[in-house]
Specification:
309 residues; alpha/beta; 4-stranded mixed beta sheet; 13 helices
């Protein structure tokens, strides 16, 4: 399949390289610094399932040069989803399917704000990775999957072929894809842990091994998860108490050196996805009149850093 990856950060580089390893025709839509690096050196992945240097990939810097694309993976940061969709509007609206792999729960809406006629499915990526430099990703765990979907997703021929292609045996990174008609449960299930881990690793400047072994910090994690769970119910998402316990267990089982991608951005002085995580939680809390004290504090403390150093 012809696949375009929009954004060459940790998530985009990992899945783009993984799909190329699986025999797909992959092209990255990137800025100049990443374009030059990928053209020269390809994408390098270092981690527990092996080290790979993937060179059978293309790069492009103009939407007019794209041509026919089967699937586009939007992997830019949440705050860039709308502007990048506007920049690559021609490609997004002419492709057969666009999959939003942004953190959070409103990536589809942000992409559609920039490319209203695109066929966009909500999705979520499960991978823990750190961008060492352009074109070099250190992936930190065995997580390696994409879940996505939306209305009529499971009957879409392009989507079905994409899932089959990703799940084809023999890919050394063992990446998996699954498609569902209602992706909101999956998105909110991940959001329980994602927004919690982002807030706590940024506030404490500590890693998972410290946070989820400390009783007081673990209590804060539980409070955060309960706040998000209450909002999911108010939004009509069918999360259960089991989702709450699963999110907490997931955080406790993270490799000890893992921190959220937002924590990497904070330490690097980059902009933060804060408004789409704790900021969105606070906004939904006000809308539904549900208290969100943990995320109110997290948002207030991290807001001075939201635009970078």
């Amino acid at each position: 399949m012809k696949i375009m990856v929009l954004g060459a950060g940790a998530v985009g580089s990992y899945f783009g390289a993984a799909l190329a390893l699986g025999g797909n025709d992959v092209v990255f839509a990137v800025r100049d610094i990443n374009r030059t690096t990928i053209m020269t050196d390809g994408v390098q992945l270092l981690g527990p399932r092996g080290d790979f240097c993937v060179t059978n990939i293309g790069v492009i810097d103009s939407p007019e040069k794209v041509g026919t694309i089967d699937v586009i993976l939007s992997c830019v940061k949440l705050y860039d989803a709308e502007s990048s969709a506007r920049q690559w509007k021609i490609a997004l609206e002419s492709s057969r399917a666009v999959i939003s792999l942004q953190n959070g729960i409103d990536g589809v809406q942000r992409i559609l704000a920039g490319a209203p006629d695109a066929k966009v499915y909500g999705g979520l990526a499960f991978v823990s990775g750190r961008m060492e430099r352009p074109g070099l990703v250190h992936y930190l765990s065995d997580m390696s999957s994409i879940t996505f979907g939306g209305v009529n997703a499971t009957t879409d021929p392009t989507v079905k072929r994409f899932v089959q292609t990703v799940n084809k045996p023999g890919n050394p990174l063992q990446v998996r894809a699954s498609c569902v008609d209602d992706v909101r449960v999956a998105q909110w299930s991940k959001f329980l842990a994602l927004a919690t881990n982002a807030a706590l690793t940024c506030l404490t400047r500590a890693n998972a091994g410290v946070i989820y072994q400390d009783p007081r910090l673990l209590a804060l994690a539980r409070q955060s998860i309960h706040e998000i769970h209450a909002l999911a119910i108010a939004e009509g998402v069918a999360l259960t108490h089991d989702h709450v316990e699963a999110a907490l267990l997931f955080l406790q089982r993270l490799p000890s050196d893992v921190v959220a991608s937002m924590s990497h951005d904070l330490h690097a002085g980059k902009p933060l996805e804060l408004d789409g995580l704790s900021g969105l939680i606070c906004s939904l809390g006000r809308r539904h009149e549900i208290p969100t004290p943990f995320h109110q504090v997290a948002y207030a403390c991290l807001k001075p850093y939201s635009n970078g150093a």
